[in-house]
Amino acid sequence: MAYTWQTVEEAAIALKCSTRTINRRVKDGAIESRLNAGRREVLICIPDEPASPPTLTAAPPPALDQAAADTAQAVRHAAGAVARAMPDDQAALAQEHARRSELALSAFRQTLSICQAEVARARTASRLAWAAVMVLAMVLYIAVGWTAGMVSRANAQRNHLAEQVKALAELSERSRQEAAAAVEARARLEGELSAMRHALPAKDNPTTRPSLLAWLFNGSVGQE
Fold it and tell me: Residue 44's beta-bridge partner residues?
């Protein structure tokens, strides 16, 4: 592994990341940077072995890829024409500008690929979120239906118990009324019996014959 100074575009291509990531790391102080001939350069570590290709879920559209390739080819042709028409130093400068333009295009394409991969991941996360919301809605619907059924059954049982309590109360009231009527009838019969006993003439009862109460009392004593 070796450390070298490269432009932001070259570092983005070497590290297989976007230029925004490089600038953010420079701003955070994670990568050392400097100004060389008016251009920003960063100090990066180049691995000895080639890094594994990035696992991107989406590739640039064919139209954008073709447009970038056409632009790079046009830049190379223009740089070649300018180099042939200019002196050596100016030709070298033009070739350097062409190389930097190609690097910028490559960095742009890589940044576009990363952005498209992030968009694809965001869409996948959004679909998963919607699926979770639908599942929760179904669970809530089932829970509400089950609760409504339980409440309906509880209301039916309560009404049935209320009817049973009402029937028992009516039966108790009827039994109380019947008991009161029986007590009243008994008292009335006892009163009529007492009145009939006092209404009998004394001559109809011999003096030597015991009264009805005495006869009943003697009978109960004899049974004992």
Answer: 4
pLDDT per residue as tens, the chain (224 positions) = 677 887 877 777 777 787 788 888 888 888 888 887 777 788 887 766 554 444 444 444 555 556 656 666 665 666 555 555 555 666 666 677 777 777 778 878 888 888 888 899 999 999 999 999 999 999 999 999 999 999 999 999 999 999 999 999 999 898 989 998 888 888 888 888 888 887 765 445 555 555 555 565 555 545 54
| Domain assignment present for 116 | no
Q: Nearest Cα to 221, choosing from 63, 50, 42, 213? A: 213
Cα angle 128, 130, 136; round to 5: 105
Question: Could you tell me if residue 171 is inside a domain?
Answer: no
Domain containing 7: what range?
1-53
Q: Write down how long the chain is.
A: 224
In a domain, 60, yes or no: no
Surface-to-core class of residue 9, CB atoms within 10 Å of its CB (0-12 exposed, 13-18 middle, 19+ buried): buried
What Å distances lie between residue 97 and 38, 88, 90, 182, CA to CA? 13, 14, 10, 125
